[in-house]
Amino acid sequence: MQRNLEIMSVQKHRLDKRLLLSKQLYDSGYLWSYKAIGDHAMLPDEELIVNSLAHLEFEDMPLLFEAFPYRQIKRVWQQRMLPYPDFYGTLNLLLAVLFFHIKSPKKYTSKYVE
């Protein structure tokens, strides 16, 4: 019973952080194309991760890592942002160093370019 309560608490915490991320992005005008329900936009986790990585201020990034597991964020970054260096080039290098602790960011990111 205690274990179930702990799991539910973690899930609620993550959901609260996702709603806060959505609200920040929506209020900033980055989610204008998504339907707003209440105070936040409803969108899939992957879209929320990409938009957060692309548009949040770096000091707000810990919120993203509280809302989603590290592996999920990194996977989405690798699949959705790294293949587009013309659009996310410098940002990808910064994310690689600051949040994914990659020692050779140019070499690492170039592996994902199509």
Question: Can you walk me through this structure?
Answer:
- 21% of the residues are buried.
- Helices cover 66% and strands 4% of the residues.
- A two-stranded antiparallel ribbon has the order 1-2.
- It has helices at residues 2-27, 45-55, 61-67, 70-80, 85-98, 105-110, and strands at residues 36-37, 40-41.
- Helix 1 runs antiparallel to helix 3 (61-67).
- The longest helix has 26 residues, at 2-27.
- It has six helices and two strands, in the order H-E-E-H-H-H-H-H.
- The radius of gyration is 15 Å and the shape is globular.
- By secondary structure, the protein is mostly helical.
Could you give the order of the helices and strands?
Answer: HEEHHHHH
Mean pLDDT over the residues: 87
Largest sheet: 2 strands, antiparallel
What coarse outline follows from CA principal-axis ratios?
Answer: globular
Main sheet: which strands, in order across? 1-2
Question: How many β-strands, per DSSP?
Answer: 2
The helix-and-strand class reads: mainly alpha
**What percent of residues are in strands?**
under 5%
Radius of gyration: 15 Å
Count the DSSP helices: 6
Helical percentage: 55-70%
- State the end-to-end CA separation: 49 Å
Poorly predicted regions: none
